């Protein structure tokens, strides 16, 4: 028996697939939370290693640049070598880099370890998502599996803040890195015992010009955006990186339509529904990551929360994302068109974000922040599951890794761009507010300064809500796939525009 579209033999479902999903979810959670787990630990690490204010951002940026820039390459390697093999390699490498970072005795050693973490995460993340894609093909099971995956992808950053706060306050900032070692070791054992995958596709060739232009362009773009947070958008280095990255990505797009073995096959992004999912993901995460940044500072700087209390304050957001993903999206995905979940999801998330625009220096957590986090979490939970499931549906096995990598790239690049853009808007708005409300009375200056900070946050949050509404509009116009349950069993849930 063969698949209707791919001609590949149809194998019976793996009896261990649900336990395998636990292993995959554990690894994915580790990768996602590592983008934020060091945020709360950063002040302690900065003091211990004597990192300057100008260089401290590299603790975060070194990871995101390597991760976001190398995802496409990691996805293609997974297609060629085999997903389970690259999954295990990524886990071992990630654990080793984490141990190196935890033992860092200098800033350079920590930056290098974080970059190495990002490199192995770029191999691990697409392997994890493509293993879910190939293990769960029945629509009902697929919805449940992607509900779990979407919940972790959406809530991982918030879980990272919680974990980082607990480890930093009660142990040491180094444990924010050391904690990955036992998690990865457990996942490696589980992967070797429980995961099953087809051998790699030796026919997949590595597109060297595509690697240079595509990965080089993404690294340059993510690096430039990261530098814009501290240097400003008009800085010559930032402009050079952004222009250079854009030029490389334009060259990449031109080459992919002519390459004999493209790194990113054009039919993957030419499909209207799939492209809509990529763009929806990028816009949604751009809005969400800015909220993580502002709320972390608001809770600590304005409301005076401790690191642990700040992390715990994000628990309702995490719980709401998990609920929306596993209890709503996963149950409805089989019988509901993806955009019927995406549009309400983005509207809910945007409404929660708009509620945060009413924050003041005296605002209470229970009356303003908590309801907003619940709304945002439910909205993101409704969004992530159909995006992951729909974007990866219907692809040939030899393209599963690169398609998964493209979804992850949209998430990482969207998060980097959104954080830098919204942070710039916030700081600019705060400066304008302070200039307009400058007072000579020192007794009022501190209060005005706090109001200026909150004003900057609220202006940026209006933009964040706008990004989420734009994500909903994108889903409405581009994600045209029907409900999987309404199609013939042999059909793909996502119509392919190119055979």
From TrEMBL:
<dbReference type="GO" id="GO:0022857">
    <property type="term" value="F:transmembrane transporter activity"/>
</dbReference>
<feature type="transmembrane region" description="Helical">
    <location>
        <begin position="18"/>
        <end position="38"/>
    </location>
</feature>
<feature type="transmembrane region" description="Helical">
    <location>
        <begin position="417"/>
        <end position="436"/>
    </location>
</feature>
<keyword id="KW-0813">Transport</keyword>
<feature type="transmembrane region" description="Helical">
    <location>
        <begin position="276"/>
        <end position="299"/>
    </location>
</feature>
<keyword id="KW-0812">Transmembrane</keyword>
<feature type="transmembrane region" description="Helical">
    <location>
        <begin position="115"/>
        <end position="136"/>
    </location>
</feature>
<keyword id="KW-0472">Membrane</keyword>
<feature type="transmembrane region" description="Helical">
    <location>
        <begin position="207"/>
        <end position="225"/>
    </location>
</feature>
<dbReference type="InterPro" id="IPR036259">
    <property type="entry name" value="MFS_trans_sf"/>
</dbReference>
<feature type="transmembrane region" description="Helical">
    <location>
        <begin position="456"/>
        <end position="479"/>
    </location>
</feature>
<dbReference type="InterPro" id="IPR020846">
    <property type="entry name" value="MFS_dom"/>
</dbReference>
<feature type="transmembrane region" description="Helical">
    <location>
        <begin position="87"/>
        <end position="109"/>
    </location>
</feature>
<keyword id="KW-1003">Cell membrane</keyword>
<feature type="transmembrane region" description="Helical">
    <location>
        <begin position="148"/>
        <end position="171"/>
    </location>
</feature>
<feature type="transmembrane region" description="Helical">
    <location>
        <begin position="177"/>
        <end position="195"/>
    </location>
</feature>
<dbReference type="Pfam" id="PF07690">
    <property type="entry name" value="MFS_1"/>
</dbReference>
<feature type="transmembrane region" description="Helical">
    <location>
        <begin position="237"/>
        <end position="255"/>
    </location>
</feature>
<feature type="transmembrane region" description="Helical">
    <location>
        <begin position="58"/>
        <end position="75"/>
    </location>
</feature>
<dbReference type="GO" id="GO:0005886">
    <property type="term" value="C:plasma membrane"/>
</dbReference>
<feature type="domain" description="Major facilitator superfamily (MFS) profile">
    <location>
        <begin position="20"/>
        <end position="483"/>
    </location>
</feature>
<feature type="transmembrane region" description="Helical">
    <location>
        <begin position="373"/>
        <end position="396"/>
    </location>
</feature>
<dbReference type="InterPro" id="IPR004638">
    <property type="entry name" value="EmrB-like"/>
</dbReference>
<feature type="transmembrane region" description="Helical">
    <location>
        <begin position="340"/>
        <end position="361"/>
    </location>
</feature>
<dbReference type="InterPro" id="IPR005829">
    <property type="entry name" value="Sugar_transporter_CS"/>
</dbReference>
<feature type="transmembrane region" description="Helical">
    <location>
        <begin position="311"/>
        <end position="333"/>
    </location>
</feature>
<dbReference type="InterPro" id="IPR011701">
    <property type="entry name" value="MFS"/>
</dbReference>
<keyword id="KW-1133">Transmembrane helix</keyword>
<keyword id="KW-0046">Antibiotic resistance</keyword>
<dbReference type="GO" id="GO:0046677">
    <property type="term" value="P:response to antibiotic"/>
</dbReference>
<protein>
    <submittedName>
        <fullName>Putative MFS-type transporter EfpA</fullName>
    </submittedName>
</protein>
């Amino acid at each position: 028996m063969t698949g209707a579209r791919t001609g590949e033999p149809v194998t019976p479902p793996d009896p261990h697939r649900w336990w395998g999903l636990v292993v995959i979810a554990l690894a994915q959670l580790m990768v996602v939370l590592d983008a934020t787990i060091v945020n709360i630990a950063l002040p302690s690490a900065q003091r211990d290693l004597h990192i300057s204010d100008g260089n401290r951002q590299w603790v975060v940026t070194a990871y995101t640049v390597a991760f976001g820039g190398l995802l496409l390459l990691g996805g293609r390697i997974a297609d060629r070598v085999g997903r389970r093999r690259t999954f295990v390699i990524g886990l071992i490498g990630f654990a080793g880099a984490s141990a190196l970072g935890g033992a860092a005795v200098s800033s350079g050693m920590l930056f290098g370890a974080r970059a190495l973490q990002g490199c192995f995460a770029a191999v691990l993340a697409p392997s994890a998502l493509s293993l879910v894609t190939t293990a769960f093909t029945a629509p009902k099971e697929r919805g449940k599996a992607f509900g779990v995956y979407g919940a972790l992808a959406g809530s991982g950053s918030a879980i990272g803040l919680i974990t980082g706060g607990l480890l930093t306050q009660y142990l040491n900032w180094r444990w924010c890195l050391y904690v990955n070692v036992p998690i990865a070791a457990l996942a490696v054992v589980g992967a070797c015992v429980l995961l099953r995958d087809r051998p790699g596709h030796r026919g997949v060739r590595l597109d060297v010009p595509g690697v240079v232009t595509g990965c080089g362009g993404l690294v340059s773009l993510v690096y430039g955006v990261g530098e814009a947070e501290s240097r400003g958008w008009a800085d010559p280095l930032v402009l050079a990186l952004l222009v250079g990255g854009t030029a490389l990505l334009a060259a990449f797009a031109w080459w992919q339509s002519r390459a004999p073995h493209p790194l990113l096959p054009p039919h993957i992004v030419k499909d209207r529904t799939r492209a809509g999912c990529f763009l929806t993901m990028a816009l949604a995460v751009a809005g969400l990551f800015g909220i993580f940044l502002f709320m972390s500072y608001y809770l600590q700087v304005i409301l005076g929360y401790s690191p642990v209390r700040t992390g715990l304050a994000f628990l309702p957001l995490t719980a709401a994302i998990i609920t929306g993903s596993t209890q709503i999206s996963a149950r409805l995905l089989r019988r509901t068109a993806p955009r019927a979940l995406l549009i309400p999801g983005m509207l809910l998330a945007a409404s929660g974000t708009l509620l945060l625009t009413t924050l003041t220096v005296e605002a209470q957590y229970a009356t303003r922040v908590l309801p907003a986090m619940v709304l945002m979490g439910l909205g993101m939970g409704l969004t992530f599951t159909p995006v992951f499931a729909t974007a990866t549906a219907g692809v040939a096995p030899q393209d599963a890794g690169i398609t998964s990598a493209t979804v992850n790239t949209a998430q990482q690049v969207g998060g980097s761009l959104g954080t830098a853009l919204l942070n710039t808007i916030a700081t600019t708005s705060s400066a304008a507010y302070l200039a307009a409300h400058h007072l000579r009375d020192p007794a009022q200056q501190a209060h005005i300064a706090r109001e200026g900070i909150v004003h900057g946050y609220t202006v940026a949050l209006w933009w964040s809500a706008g990004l989420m509404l734009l994500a909903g509009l994108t889903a409405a116009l581009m994600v045209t796939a029907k409900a999987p349950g309404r199609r013939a069993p042999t059909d793909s849930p996502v119509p392919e525009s190119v055979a």
